[in-house]
Amino acid sequence: MDDLLLAPALLAAKFDFGTVREYLFRDIVIKAAWRTLYISAYAQIVGVAIGVVVAVPRHLRMPVLSQLASFYVWFFRGTPLLLQILFWFTALPLYAPDDFGWWIFQFKHDWLLLSPFQAALVALAVNEGAYMAEIVRAGIESIESGQMDAAKSLGMRNLQAMRLVILPQAFRVIVPPTGNEFNAMLKNSSLASVIAFNELLFTSRGVYARNYQVLELLVVASFWYLVFTTVWTVIQDEIECRMRPEMRRAGLLTRLRNGLTPPSRLIGGDTGGGR
């Protein structure tokens, strides 16, 4: 019984807070954190673009493109992201043809030999594109079908109506889940450590492999992941509040900027005690 009571104290004694303080803002960790943020943002942007390109043909029922888009979504949503990262980095170059292309566009055998950064970026972006395709499709379907009919009555083609009429209205529905996807992307980028991409988790593992301070370095990595996701949560909340004024509240950044101003005044509401 006494041993059980002493266990927390023993664990606390073994944990070296000095190591956490030493590495929390060290250059090697800061650079790794920056690489994590960079690849996450880059992959998310590319993933959103892929999602829009894939979702539009599925909604417009384009025969061949719709089937290809459905297969893409089915495959990349149905297989683990870790497997996809390993595939792009290791499996794909093994089965590349010795020569590819023709004339001046001839590629050699190593044309699919991707660096860890390239393989991680492609895997994260392509996987994210499958999820974004479903988010964009749901946003498009939330718009009344009469909007498309009205656009066609004005002489617009399907793609033109989609770009000028449907997607701008669907944007408000698409933004919140897209923000959640980026939050997940910041954490999913840690999977790139398995192919030696020098992001936050891989750097932390490399350090504790030398000094054996495993828990301390994992706490350092956790700190930066929490910083990124917390800051993004605040930004996402601000964006959503600005895009949906009917929510009748201001985002955290607006409240901080305006001090103790009541929320009704922040969003231009009536401050005279009315409805």
What does this structure look like?
The model is unreliable at 102-106 and 264-275 (pLDDT under 50). The termini are far apart. α3 runs antiparallel to α8. The protein is an all-alpha fold and 275 residues long. The protein has helices at 2-14, 17-24, 27-60, 63-78, 81-94, 116-141, 145-153, 158-188, 200-211, 214-243, 252-257, 263-266. The protein has one domain: MetI-like fold (Orthogonal Bundle), CATH 1.10.3720.10. The chain is 74% helix and 0% strand. It is built from 12 helices and no strands.
Q: How are the SSEs ordered, and which strands pair?
A:
Blueprint: H1 2-14, H2 17-24, H3 27-60, H4 63-78, H5 81-94, H6 116-141, H7 145-153, H8 158-188, H9 200-211, H10 214-243, H11 252-257, H12 263-266
Brief write-up:
The protein is mainly α. The chain has a single domain, classed as MetI-like (MetI-like fold).
SSE sequence, one letter per element: HHHHHHHHHHHH
The total tally of domains equals 1
Tell me the β content. under 5%
Beta strands, count: 0
What are the low-pLDDT stretches, counting only 5+ consecutive residues below 50? 102-106, 264-275
Give the distance, in angstroms, between the N- and C-terminal Cα atoms.
62 Å
Which key phrases capture this entry?
275 residues, 12 helices, MetI-like fold, mainly alpha
